[in-house]
Amino acid sequence: MIYSMTGFAAVSTELDSGSLTLELRSVNHRYLDLQLRMPDELRTLEPILREAISAQISRGKAECRINLASRHSAQQPARMNQVLLEQLSAWSAQVREMLPDARELSVADVLRWDGVLESPALSAETLHDNLHALLQKALQDFAAARQREGEKLKSFLLERVVQIETLRAAVAPRIPSAITAYEAKLRTRLLEALGSDDDERVRQEITLYASKIDVDEELSRLQTHLAEVRRVLDKGGAVGKRLDFLMQELHREANTLGSKSVDAEVSRAAMDIKILIEQMREQVQNIE
Fold first, then answer.
1. Is the residue at 127 inside a domain?
2. Is there a contact between 60 and 27 (Cβ–Cβ < 8 Å)?
3. Which residues are in the Endoribonuclease YicC-like C-terminal domain (predicted)?
4. d(CA 24, CA 65)
5. Does the pTM of the predicted model rise above 0.70?
């Protein structure tokens, strides 16, 4: 399978005291850059989460965001933090001792104080089990999303490979006709300049000219690289770096093909090939 570095998955589960949500998202990156964002009470599980995610992703800028939303219910009412209440009472007495006109804390003020109301806490084991199950579901959805995107990228690249092969096939037959046209032009110039078309001189010039515009080697290497692109895409896996290298090689051959061109159609074909390679290169950046 071909996997894109771009993916997203979001899953959630309901707990007795609230809801647990996990989001996974990633974009392309040269190497693996994983960031975990979670409540402090889940921070002890970070090594397990990091290991599980890293086992599935080899490249990409990934973010795992976990949210634990608590709620109060009639069955499990919130509890007062007795220690904090005593501390608030002591603080209030100290303030009023120094500032007699200071207003006393109301019940509403106390209840709004951060940490006064405590929800029944889930055990670490319960949190671990729920989060592990949630992570497995998220990773499955995440892999499926990356695979779907990867298959689209693969189809895109193979379409360009076919188009480049078509352009390549159209170039080779034009080389002999270009040499023939040059020979006729050369004979005409020699006849005008010298009054004769020296066969030996013509043969030498034609041989030199043919060697300069010979693109058989470039066309052969171009086809070899295209075949390797097909092979790598069929093999699958983490092939992004290999494909990126092949794009560089294809671009080099297309540049040489254009520089040797003495025919307008060959020049246009070389330009079209370079455009297609650039389109492929942009998409290859998204492949893991």
1. yes
2. yes
3. 174-288
4. 7
5. yes
58-94: pLDDT as tens digits = 899 999 999 987 665 445 556 677 888 888 888 888 8
Per DSSP, which regions of 75-187 are E strands?
A: 79-80, 117-118
**127/237 Cα distance (integer angstroms):** 33
Q: What residues have CB less than 8 Å from 185, skipping those under 6 apart?
A: none
Cβ–Cβ < 8 Å for 65, 10: no
Of 50, 79, 52, 67, the closest CA to residue 15 belongs to 67
**Across the chain, what does the average pLDDT equal?**
84
Q: Are 5 and 63 in contact (CB under 8 A)?
A: no
Structure confidence by residue, pLDDT tens digits, 213-228: 667 788 889 999 999 9
Is the model more confident about 264 or about 47? 47
Structure confidence at residue 264 as a pLDDT band (50, 70, 90): confident
Residue numbers of the domain that contains 233:
149-284
Q: Using CA atoms in the order 192, 195, 200, 201, what is the torsion angle rounded to 10 degrees?
A: -40
Q: What is the CATH number of the domain that holds 265?
A: 1.20.140
My answer on whether 66 and 105 are in the same domain is no
Half-sphere exposure of 93 (CA within 13 A, CB side): 5
| CA torsion through residues 180, 186, 192, 198, sign | negative
Q: How far is CA 65 from the centre of its chain?
A: 19
Q: Are 225 and 249 in contact (CB under 8 A)?
A: yes
